[in-house]
Structures are given as C-alpha cells and as structure tokens.
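Researcher: Can you fold this with C2E in place?
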Amino acid sequence: YQAKGSRSGIARYDACRDTFDVGKLALVGELRRAIESGELELHYQPKAELRTGRLCAVEALVRWRHPRRGVLPPDAFLPAAEQTGLIDPLTRWVLAAALAQITVWAGAFDDLTMAVNVSARNLARPDFADAVLAALSDAGIAPGRLTLEITETALLADPEVAADVLARLSATGVRVSIDDFGQGQTSLGYLSRLPLHELKIDRSFVTDLADNPAHAAIVRSVVDLGHNLGLQVVAEGVESRETVELLTATGCDIAQGFLLARPMPPGDLADWVAAHRTDVLTADR
Ligand code: C2E
Ligand code: MG
Ligand code: MG
Ligand code: MG
C-alpha cells in the first residue's frame, strides 16, 4: 500500500514503520468501525502559563475504548491508522469532537485554545486545510481558538504540501505548534519558513531537566530559539515542582505535564478547571 506517488516521500516514511501482521489487520478492521460507532474518545490535558499559573489551553489526546481490550492508548492504533489511510477519518473525528467540546464547555473555557494533534499523512494531503476549515465552520468556532500540533516527522512526509497547508490555515488564524521539538530532523531553514506560533520542547529534555545539565542547556537554547523566532515556548512532560522553577527561570512560557494534571475525560476536566483555574501551578493536588 502506498498513499501517494513516491515523489511525496510517504513511501520513505512508511518504510520506517512495522510491516503488517494479522493482529494489526484485525485491529484496522475494528478501528474502521470504531470511528463510526463512537468507541473513540478524547481526553484533555491542561497547558498553563508559567508566569501567572493561569490555564491557557488544553490538548486533546485520543483513546480507543475497545470493547474487549479496554482503553487503548494512541500508540497502539495510530501507526496502523497512518499506514492504511484511516487516519483521515480519524483526524476528522478528533477535530469535530474537540471543537464541539469547546461549545459544550463554554463559559469558563472562553479564553482557552484547543490543541489537536495532526499526523504526517493528514498534512501530506492538499485538501487537509479545507477539512480543518470545514470543521471550524461546522462547529462555529473561531480559527484562532484552534492550535494544530505537528511533529517534525509529520512535516517531512511531504514538506512542500505541509508548508502550503499550514500557510493557508495560518492565514485564517489557526495556530501552528511544532510538537516534540528536538526529536526530529527538520532543518531550521525549513522551520523558519513555516507560519509557526508555538514550539513544544520534547519531554525527553524536560522531565529530567533538574538532573541533566545537557538537557538543561538544550532547554535554555530552545527557549531562546523560540523567542528569537517570535514563538511561544511550551515545555511538555513537566513532572516536578523543581522543573517548573527551572523552566520559569529560563523564561519558558507554558508548562504541560503530569505535575499539573494527567489527560482527563471532559467531565473531569471541567471539575478540575473549576477548582484550579488560576492557580494551576501552585495549588495542592
Ligand atoms: P504528544 O502530542 O506529544 O502528547 C503528549 C503525550 O505525553 C501524551 O501521551 C500525554 O499523556 C503524555 N504526557 C503528558 N504529560 C506527561 C508527563 O508529564 N510525563 C509523561 N511521561 N508523559 C506525559 P498519549 O496521550 O499517550 O499520546 C501519545 C502521542 O500520540 C501524542 O504525543 C501524539 O503524538 C499522539 N496522539 C495523541 N492523540 C492524537 C490524535 O488525536 N491525533 C494524532 N494524530 N495523534 C495523537
Ligand atoms: Mg501533542
Ligand atoms: Mg509532544
Ligand atoms: Mg509525543
């Protein structure tokens, strides 16, 4: 199976992945149904401003409530979805559900942005921009409230198409974030040509920040790089108070991680927000 002509670079991307086995094929058949039958759900993890402790965004993270296998994490089914093209309906479902959630929450969530993760194959499709804009207009949500999180790997599937798609979306106000920054192989020249708003430092550099001088140096440098490019810098994988203090000292803008909160179902998140809206970084939990 090949998504597009070899020019696209998709073939190169797929070659890095596992080949199919029978178990995976069964899973793919089930996933196709799962998308339609409501077995997918989104959990939401807060992002908070380091300077003020204020909640500023939530990231939607997909789970599959499988009838026999229990709740499956994204890593268990997203690679297969990418390989088969099921990622296109899956991402459409995620976008629609995350944007609908903004309206359900309303009120206390009015100044939050919603972050949605986007896969390589989504971004390699020129019509992806239309799909995102249709989802926003169907949900009646302003484009500026949506952040698309994109890994460097996802950009490399087809860098030209990805740049075009992001330029179109960014022109409407959609925000663009580079996820897991520092893990990939995108050139800084290419990144500097993209219409970016946010850099998320990969959690492998953040979690052990206090004990790893090399990672501390990388975090400081990425914060400077991001700020010099005019971007907001997010640290993911924040698990300790010490890390919060070090990040604050570097001038990092936003924190996300288990210290603040784990990803939660929407009802739990609403309760959590009511309790921690302005003191996300300081309250006892
Ligand atoms: P990501 O976008 O980098 O999301 C962050 C992942 O790190 C999440 O795992 C989250 O639960 C986890 N995490 C958050 N804080 C901490 C922390 O303090 N420590 C540690 N150790 N981990 C933390 P999750 O939900 O399993 O998602 C894994 C990846 O799957 C995501 O990484 C993202 O690349 C992908 N993904 C998740 N949902 C979607 C989706 O709806 N669409 C697409 N295309 N990809 C998704
Ligand atoms: Mg993400
Ligand atoms: Mg990440
Ligand atoms: Mg990740």
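Model: Folded with C2E in place. Confidence is low (pLDDT under 50) at residues 1-16.
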